[in-house]
């Protein structure tokens, strides 16, 4: 099937014509890119009644008050999704497609956890809101995005832990390539900054704790202790190159290769040989018709956890040998946005490709001998590249790799 997909993709390239983002780094793609290039860190202390945690929230005022009552009653994750998806839709100029030819695929790890917790609290006083029956579903994310762009094709919410958005983008590309739809809006959204979620991940040893909030997430650094969660959303508009040219749309990049897969292991899905991530990268390269030497930059998953960064290094070395391309992680910029992370990182990867600038890894200071790859640190690096790779990994062994190429 991969060989057939490769042939189809060579005959009918798939492209990106719109991007939208909302994150702790800012309210749009421009703000996200500027923060990534500057290595601007977003984490701060979140003071809940239960405890204090570090996190990267979307600032008050970034989300405009919703006019649609359905959206007003929706979870914050769905509101973020709609804001990012609408921005991508507007940039792409998609106004003429029949509803049934438009797909929406939204990735999320935790989904509308805020609405779920709200309903759980209201059970005690027997005042659960009728709207919560729909707004507490994972499908609310893709459903509200579909309503906002007038989509009537496949409308799905994908959950693959922290690889969710990458899975949504890959599935969307296949829907377009197989001519199931003419255009797809795909990405991810997450609003996980709730004491319950943060406490769960702290108990699992995922969250870092040492130092100031903005210094906690230190991807690939020898002193790293864990990650910092963030909230946000990122969405892409995906269509065929022929379709985009026919309607006169501006093409931002090609989605030239993708692959998703799972590590059949334990809950973390981290193995010593990183077999699933290796397989995903190799399959993405094969579908793209590229060799490892063609990749000029890797946007790493780079969470800042000890095991994840080490095993991602192992995977990169297995695929690229001694010549791993320059790598960086933007997790200190946005926080780890879980199901939305891959979409935000895809957007930064596309901007790096378009602008010839590779963003740095904030907080990387001390090399780890077990993460001995070319980590971009300090300042952004100017480098004209033709192909970039963005990798994602998550609980239950979910792994994904996306490759973007110059249009």
Overall 3D form: globular
Tally the helices.
14
Number of strands: 15
State the low-pLDDT regions, or none.
none
Strands in their spatial order, largest beta sheet: 5-4-6-8-1-9-15-14-10-11
Average pLDDT level: 93
The value of Rg in angstroms is: 20 Å
Structural class: alpha/beta
Order of helices and strands: HEHEEHHEHHHEHEHEEHEHEHEHHEEEE
* Helical residues, percent: 25-40%
Major sheet size, sense and barrel closure: 10 strands, mixed
Q: How large a portion of the residues is in β-strands, by DSSP E?
A: 15-25%
The CA-CA distance between the termini, in Å, is 25 Å
Map the helices and strands.
Blueprint: H1 2-11, E1 14-23, H2 29-38, E2 44-47, E3 52-56, H3 69-72, H4 76-92, E4 102-107, H5 113-123, H6 132-135, H7 139-149, E5 155-158, H8 164-177, E6 183-190, H9 195-203, E7 229-230, E8 232-240, H10 241-246, E9 253-262, H11 275-288, E10 297-299, H12 306-320, E11 327-328, H13 331-334, H14 341-355, E12 357-358, E13 381-382, E14 387-394, E15 398-405
Parallel strand pairs: 3-7, 4-5, 4-6, 10-11, 10-14
Antiparallel strand pairs: 1-8, 1-9, 2-3, 6-8, 9-15, 12-13, 14-15
Helix pairs in contact: 1-11, 2-14, 4-7, 8-14, 11-12
Question: Any overview of this molecule?
Answer:
- There is one protein chain.
- This protein has 407 residues and is of the alpha/beta class.
- 35% of the residues lie in helices and 20% in strands.
- It has helices at 2-11, 29-38, 69-72, 76-92, 113-123, 132-135, 139-149, 164-177, 195-203, 241-246, 275-288, 306-320, 331-334, 341-355; strands at 14-23, 44-47, 52-56, 102-107, 155-158, 183-190, 229-230, 232-240, 253-262, 297-299, 327-328, 357-358, 381-382, 387-394, 398-405.
- A 10-stranded mixed beta sheet has the order 5-4-6-8-1-9-15-14-10-11, with helices on both faces.
- The longest helix is centred in the first third of the chain and has 17 residues, at 76-92.
- The protein is globular, with a radius of gyration of 20 Å.
């Amino acid at each position: 099937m991969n060989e057939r997909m490769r042939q189809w993709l060579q005959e009918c390239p798939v492209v990106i014509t719109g991007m939208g983002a909302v994150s702790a780094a800012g309210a749009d793609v421009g703000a996200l890119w500027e923060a990534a290039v500057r290595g601007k860190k977003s984490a701060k202390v979140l003071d809940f009644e239960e405890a204090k945690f570090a996190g990267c929230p979307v600032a008050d005022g970034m989300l405009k008050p919703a006019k649609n009552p359905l959206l007003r009653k929706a979870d914050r994750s769905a509101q973020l999704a709609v804001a990012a998806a609408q921005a991508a839709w507007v940039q792409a100029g998609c106004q003429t497609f029949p509803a049934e030819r438009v797909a929406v695929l939204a990735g999320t790890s935790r989904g509308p956890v805020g609405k779920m917790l709200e309903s759980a609290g209201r059970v005690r006083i027997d005042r659960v809101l009728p709207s919560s029956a729909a707004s507490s579903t994972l499908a609310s994310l893709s459903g509200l995005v579909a309503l906002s762009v007038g989509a009537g094709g496949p409308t799905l919410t994908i959950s693959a832990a922290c690889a969710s958005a990458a899975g949504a983008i890959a599935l969307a590309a296949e829907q377009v390539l197989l001519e199931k739809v003419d255009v797809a809006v795909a990405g991810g959204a997450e609003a996980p900054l709730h004491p319950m979620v943060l406490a769960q991940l702290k108990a699992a040893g995922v969250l870092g704790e040492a130092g100031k909030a903005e210094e906690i997430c230190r991807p690939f650094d020898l002193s790293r202790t864990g990650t910092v969660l963030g909230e946000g959303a990122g969405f892409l508009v995906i269509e065929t190159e022929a379709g985009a040219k026919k309607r006169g749309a501006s093409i931002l990049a090609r989605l030239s290769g993708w692959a998703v897969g799972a590590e059949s292991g334990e809950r973390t899905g981290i193995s010593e040989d990183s077999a699933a991530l290796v397989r995903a990268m190799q399959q993405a390269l094969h579908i793209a018709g590229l060799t490892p030497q063609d990749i000029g930059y890797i946007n790493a998953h780079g969470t800042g956890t000890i095991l994840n960064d080490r095993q991602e290094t192992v995977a990169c070395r297995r695929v690229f040998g001694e010549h791993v391309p320059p790598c960086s992680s933007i997790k200190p910029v946005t926080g780890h946005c879980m199901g939305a992370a891959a979409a935000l990182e895809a957007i930064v990867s596309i901007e790096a490709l378009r602008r010839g600038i590779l963003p740095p890894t904030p907080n990387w200071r001390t090399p780890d001998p077990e993460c001995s790859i070319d980590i971009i640190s300090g300042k952004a690096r100017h480098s004209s590249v033709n192909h970039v790779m963005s990798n994602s990994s998550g609980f239950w062994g979910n792994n994904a790799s996306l490759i973007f190429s110059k249009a």
